[in-house]
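ping. complex inputs:
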Amino acid sequence: MPPALEVTDLSTHIKLSRAVVQAVGNVDLRIDEGETLGLVGESGCGKSMLGLSILGLLPNGGRIVGGSIKAGGRELVGLPERELRRIRGNEVAMIFQDSLSSLNPTKTIGEQVSEPVRLHRGASRREALERALEVLELVGLPQPRERLRDYPHQLSGGLRQRVMIAIALSCEPKVLIADEPTTALDVTIQAQILSVLDGLRERLGMATLLVTHDMGVVAGRTSRINVMYAGRLVETAPTERLFSAMRHPYTQALLASIPRLESDNTRALVSIPGIPPDLTKPPSGCRFASRCPRATRQCAEQEPPLSGDDPSHRFACWHPVDGPEIRTPTIAVRERSAAALRAASSTNGHHLLEVVDAVREYPVTAGTLMRRRVNSVKAVSGVSIHLDVGETLGLVGESGCGKTTLGKMIVGVEKPDAGRILLNGAEVFRLRGRSLRRVRRDLQMMFQDPYASLDPRMRVQAILREPLVIQDVGSRRDQDRRVRGLLDEVGLPANALERYPHEFSGGQRQRIALARAVILEPKVMVADEPVSALDVSIRSQVLNLMKRLQAEHGMASIVISHDLAVVKYLSDRIGVMYLGKLVEIGTGDQIYRTPAHPYTEALIRTIPLPDPVAERSKSDVGIRGELPSPVNPPSGCRFRTRCPRAQSRCSEEEPLLRPFGHGHMAACHFPLQPPAEGNGAGGAVAAAPDVSGAAEAAT
Amino acid sequence: MIGFVIRRLAVAVLVTLGIALVTFLLLHILSPSPVYAVLGAKAEPAAVKAWNLQHGYDRPVLAQFLTYIGNIIHGDFGYSYKLSQSVTALFREHSGRSAYLSGSALVLSLLIALPLGIAQAVRRNSIGDYTVTSLNFILYSMPSFFLGLILIQFLALDWGVFPPVVSDQITTVWGAFTHPLQLTLPIVTLAAINVASFSRYMRSSALDNLAQDYIRLARAKGLSQRAVLTRHLLRNACLPMITLVGLSIPYLLAGNLLIEVLFNYSGIGLLFYTALGNLDYNVLLAYVIAGGILTVLGNLIADVAVAVADPRIRLG
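pong. complex structure:
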C-alpha cells in the first residue's frame, strides 16, 4: 500500500520582482495512513511553502521547480488545475494558523462548513448542512445547531479553530496539513485543539502533517519529526529519538534554547548567534554553517547530504553532535552601573512600586437616542502587587486576563478607575506637570511587536536619543555617548545608529526597543510579551540580554507574558492572573512546584513540553471550556466555571488571597495544599497586609 | 439596528438644518433680497422698499429663516420670480431627469468598475493592470466637461453616431428611455469619470481581501478561481465601496451640473446654472440645500447599507 503522502526531492522557488527565493530545496517526506508527521522550523525556513506546494496553493510567483508529490500513489506535480481542485479539500485538506482571517467574515458558519460537501459530494444544501452539523459535533463545538447561523466574529478563537478543522474534515480527507494550527491560541485552548486533532486522526485514520515552530507541540503528538532550516531538511527521526539523540547541531541548539519550567533560571539559555541566511542567495555549503559552533571549512564549501546509518534517522551534517548537550553558563554580568549600586542601597521603608486595588473597566454602551453605559468590560478588578528594588515580577495569564492593562496602568499610560499606583510611596496619578514628567523617566515600557513599536521614519540614533531629549538629560555630547554605550551593551554595531528600523531583523529590533526602554535608567521597566513575536533561536538571545541588563542596571522589572516558561526564566516572583484577578503569587519555584490554585496547576499542566515522554504521559487536556466573558464574569470565584474542584461555595463567596508560606499567596476556597496557619511563615508577613486588605475591599 | 437608524436620522435632520442656516445667511450677505433681480437694477428706492415689505424681506434675518424652514417643512421652497413658477414645481419637473442621468451613470460605472477592479487585483502588476491604471489616471484627472467635449467632437460631430446635444423634445424620463441614443453621450461621460475612481478603490480593496487567509482557505476547499472570486471575494471587497458610492452621490449632482450644461439637458444642474446667471434667489437656495440633504442622506444610506451587508457591524 502506498503511503498517504510522499514527497520526494521537492524544490519550490518564489519569484519576486528582483530576486528568486529558494524557499524549499530538495525536501523528502513520507506519511503513512493514521500517522502524524511533525514539520518543525523557524519562520522563513520554508515549512509553510512546503505545505502550500502540496496543495498547489503557492502565492503569486511561486512554482514547484522539481521533485514529486504523491497522494495515495497519485502524482500531484504537473496535474492540471481542474484535477487538483478535485483533490483539494476532498483528499488533501489544510488548516491555517489564524482562524479569524481564515474564515469569510460575511458568510455563516453553516455555509462555510457545508461548502466543500456541496462541491465535492454534490450534496444538496440541506444534506450538506446535515453533514456540517455532524462534523461540527465531531470537533466538539458546543451547541453546533445554534452556531450554524452564526458568523465567525461571534465565536472565540478556539471555537473558530474548531470550525476551521470541521471545514477541513467535512469530506473526510486522507491527508490533513495543519499549518501552525494552535499558534494563535492560548495554551489551555491549544491543548484542547491538539487533543481534538489527535482524536480525529485515530478515529478517521488520517495522515497528518503538523507544521509548527513549537517543539512542545510536536513532542507528544507525532511519531516522526522533520526539522527544516533555510529551505532544507536537516534532520528526520522518530520523535523520541530526535529529542533524546539528535545528531544535527541546529536541532540540538533549537531544543536547548527553549526556556524550560524545571530549569534553574540563574543559568543562561543556549542561544544561536546570528540570523538565518537570505534564501535569495543561499550559501553554497551547509546553510547552518555561519551560525554553527562546529563549522569547519568543509561545511562552508560542501553541502552535507541527508544520510545516516539508520534509514529511519537521517541528518545533513559533516560534524554531527551526539544527543542533547547540557551546557549552561551562568549569566555573565559585565559590570553593575553606578545607578544599579545606588538603587540597591536606597530602600526607604516602602516598596519601590506598589499597586493597591487597581481597577480598570471599559464601558459597553447601548441605547436608541442617547448612548448610555449599560455594562463594562472588567479588564482589571482589584489587583494589588508590589515590587522591590532590583526585583523582577512576572505576570502570566491567558489573553483577556488583564495583564497588559495592568502593565499599562503601572507605566501610567492607562488611568485606573479605582485604586492607587505608588512609586517610592508617591501616587503616580496625583502628580502633575514637571513631577509627572520626572516620574515617567522611572517608568518605561517595552512592547511586543518590534515592527510596530519603533517609528519607521526615525533613525536608530534619533529613536534612542529621543527619551533623553524629552527628559532633558545631559548635553548633546553626553546623550550621544550614552546612546553609543547602550548600543554596544545590547550587542548592536555602532553603524546601526545611522540606519532605520526596517533595515534590522526582528531580534535586532527588539534589542533596539530594549535599549530605548532602559536608556533613561528607569527604576521600573514593564516588558509586555517581549519575545512573543520572535523565533525560538532569536528569542533566547533577547532573553539572555534582558536578564543581563536587569542585573547590570539594577532595574526592577515587570515581565508580562502568556508563556510561563519565559516568565519563570526572567522573574524572581510570578503573579498568575485570571479574568482580571490575581489568583496566585509566589516565587517561580513555589508557583511551578507547589501551586495552590487549581488554575495555576492546570496552566502548568497544559503547557506543551519539548519532551515526548512527559507529553505522552499527560492524561487529560487540562482546562475544559472557554474563558467566560469579562463583561459578566462569574460570581464568587471567577475560575469556578472551569474548575474541577468547584463547589457551591465558590459561586457564593469570592475567595481572598491567603498566605501559603514564604510570600506564597493564592485565592482559592479549596486549594491544592493547606494554607499556612495564621501569619506564620516569615516571607508572608511583608506581603500579607496590603494584599489581604485589597482582597477585603474587593468583596 | 432600528435604534441606530433612528439615531442617525436625528443627527441627519440637525445637520441639514445647520446647512440650511449657513446657506441662508451666506446668500443673505451676498444679496439681502431678490428685489433687484425682479424689479431691475435701477429700480426706484420706494418701489424696492414696498416690494421688500410686501414679500417679507424687511424682517430680521432669523425670522426670515424660520419662516423659510417652516415653508420647507410644508414642501414650499418659495417662488422663482424669474421663471414665474414655484421652486417645488421646478424641482419636481427637473429632478427626475437628473436622477435618470446620474442613476444610469452610477449603475453603469459600478457594472464596469467592480469586475474591472477585481480583474486588476487578480492580475496585479501585469501589463493589463498597468494599462488600465494609466487610463484610469488620465480619466480621473480630466475635467468632465473636457472629456464630454472630446466625446462630442469624435462620436457626434466627426462620426455622427450620437447627437451632440440632447434634443429639447426629451422632457420626461420616459422620453429619455425611449430615445436611448439621445442620452448616451452624457451618461458615458459621467460614468467614465466614476469608473476611474471606483475601479481604483475596488482594485485596492480586492487586493486587501485577496491577501487574506480566507481566500487561501476557499482555494484549499477546492473551489475554482471563479467561485472563489464571486462567492467569497466579491461581497467582502464591495464593503468599502458602499461607503464610497454613498459619499459620491452629491458629486454626481455636481457632475450633472457641468454635463447638463454641456449637453443642454434640462435637469437640476442646468436649472441651477441658469439661476446663477440671473440671481434666481429661491432656486439657488433650494439647490444648495438639496445638495446638503443629498450629502447627509448619501452618508446615512451608506452607513445603513454597510451595516446590512456586514454582519460584523450588524451583530456587533
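Chain A touches chain B through 34 residues (CB under 8 Å).
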